[in-house]
User: Which sequence fits this backbone?
């Protein structure tokens, strides 16, 4: 076991490829059981995955657990990744978000979140976002698109995505009927999609 | 609304935003996924909105995982078999019967004789063609790897990290380590690892069906007399590795049942998994 681990971390093998390899290519290799590809994909995406999970779960230890589970799932299900259906980043982060939400809804700590988080303000979440140019750009892009939503759409989308609340929980938090929440989430997401130029 | 209902196209269309945000509750999610299988238009919209949701995630601050997390993960790969490329379609996979069905506990009265290993239920849903990944093929290597992961996974049920790590580490090193894989009634698998010498057990569960909010999976040590002692509750999302609470006595089996949230003093439902004696 240790041999395998240290082998995966062997610098020569790790940095052999000068050409950046796409995540889709890495996933294809992982599907064939390639540990080095898995290691590379992990290095490239784990901070994103953990960042997203932590945003939802807040608790760091739990977030690391869920992050582990997501990567195990990536390893297990890589053979079923179909690049024709969407990019690797989408696949991975969608899985991460879903697992974080699953954890919130299943765990006791999840149920205590309301008191810890409440309705979190969208903007304050970004106070700490400064590390990289890439993150800044993404942040600006999201912020701008979010700015085009109605206040009600923005609240609903924020609670659902960053808060991990279900649509009926969002309805309760915002004191509106469930049907209204569904409509707001859909209209809000369609607006965001169009604002951010996502091809559909 | 019963979960048997099919969504009308206009109802389904309303749910795409919530779906992309993972904000649907299980019933609605299952029904929308059924609708997705039959509507290209709906699939296109969901794809676009899901991609949009991912952009939202990209604006979150990246967080570096601990170096131990990666080591543990890499060590786990050996015992984590990969699925075959031959897959159900996405919609089918997510709405597979055993993923949606909560075990019908009333139907399981027959499993009373805990001492009989044959009583371990086999789920009818484990049909051919859906052959599940197996965690262990009887190799000790898998056990070692699984225990290594305890550095980061395995703290559910109030076990202190250091404690569970120590004990899992010891379990890993035990000369008399044994494992058994069991199907879980209602779907999923449970692999139990144990050492008689150390009076200690751990369990790895995979693909257990989601429970209602007021229910929880609970583990038990059951002695020959049929008396059960709680070994902790289990958060069953995805793949979990967990050390069992308490000491493993001699001549016990490990069982799992569905209990009211918070767990029970003694099993209140028929076990959905029992290890070989």
Assistant:
């Amino acid at each position: 076991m240790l041999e395998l681990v240290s082998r995966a971390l062997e610098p020569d093998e790790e940095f052999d490829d000068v050409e950046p390899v796409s995540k889709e290519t890495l996933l294809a290799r992982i599907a064939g059981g390639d540990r080095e590809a898995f290691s590379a994909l992990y290095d490239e995406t784990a901070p994103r995955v953990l960042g997203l999970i932590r945003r939802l779960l807040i608790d760091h230890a739990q977030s690391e657990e869920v992050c582990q589970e997501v990567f195990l799932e990536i390893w297990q299900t890589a053979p079923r990744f179909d690049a024709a259906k969407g990019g690797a980043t989408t696949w991975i982060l969608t899985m991460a978000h879903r697992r974080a939400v699953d954890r919130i809804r299943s765990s006791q700590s999840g149920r205590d979140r309301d008191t810890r988080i409440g309705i979190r303000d969208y903007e304050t979440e970004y106070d700490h976002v400064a590390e990289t140019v890439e993150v800044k750009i993404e942040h600006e892009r999201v912020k701008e698109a979010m700015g085009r939503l109605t206040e009600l759409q923005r609240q609903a989308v924020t609670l659902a995505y960053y808060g991990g609340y279900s649509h009926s929980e969002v309805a309760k938090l915002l004191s509106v009927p469930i049907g209204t929440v569904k409509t707001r989430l859909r209209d809000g997401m369609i607006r965001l999609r169009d604002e951010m130029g996502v091809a559909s | 609304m019963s979960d048997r209902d099919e969504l009308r196209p206009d109802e389904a269309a309303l749910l795409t935003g919530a779906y992309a945000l993972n904000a649907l509750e299980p019933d609605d999610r299952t029904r929308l996924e059924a609708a997705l299988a039959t509507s290209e238009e709906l699939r296109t919209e969901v794809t676009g909105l899901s991609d949009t949701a991912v952009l939202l995630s990209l604006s979150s601050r990246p967080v570096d995982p601990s170096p131990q997390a990666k080591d543990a993960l890499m060590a786990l790969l050996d015992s984590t078999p990969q699925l075959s490329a031959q897959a159900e379609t996405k919609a089918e996979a997510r709405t597979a019967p055993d993923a949606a069905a909560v075990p019908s506990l009333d139907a399981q009265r027959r499993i009373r004789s805990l001492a009989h290993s044959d009583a371990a239920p086999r789920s009818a849903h484990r049909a051919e063609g859906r052959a599940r990944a197996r965690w262990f093929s009887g190799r000790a290597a898998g056990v070692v790897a699984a225990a290594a992961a305890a550095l980061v996974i395995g703290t559910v049920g109030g076990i202190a990290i250091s404690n569970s790590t120590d004990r899992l580490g010891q379990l890993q090193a035990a000369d008399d380590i044994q494992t058994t894989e069991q199907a879980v009634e209602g779907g999923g698998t449970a692999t139990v690892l144990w050492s008689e010498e150390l009076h200690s057990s751990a369990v790895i569960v995979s693909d257990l069906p989601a429970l209602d909010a007021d229910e929880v999976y609970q583990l038990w040590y059951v002695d020959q007399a049929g008396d059960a002692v709680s070994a902790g509750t289990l958060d069953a999302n995805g793949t979990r590795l967990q050390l069992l609470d308490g000491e493993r006595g001699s001549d016990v089996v490990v069982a799992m049942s569905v209990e009211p949230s918070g767990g029970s003093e003694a099993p209140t439902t028929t076990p959905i998994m029992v290890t070989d004696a």
Q: What stands out?
A: Residues 1-17, 114-130 of chain A have pLDDT under 50 and may be disordered. The first helix of chain A runs from residue 2 to 8. The two ends of chain A are 45 Å apart (CA to CA). Chain A touches chain B through 92 residues (CB under 8 Å).
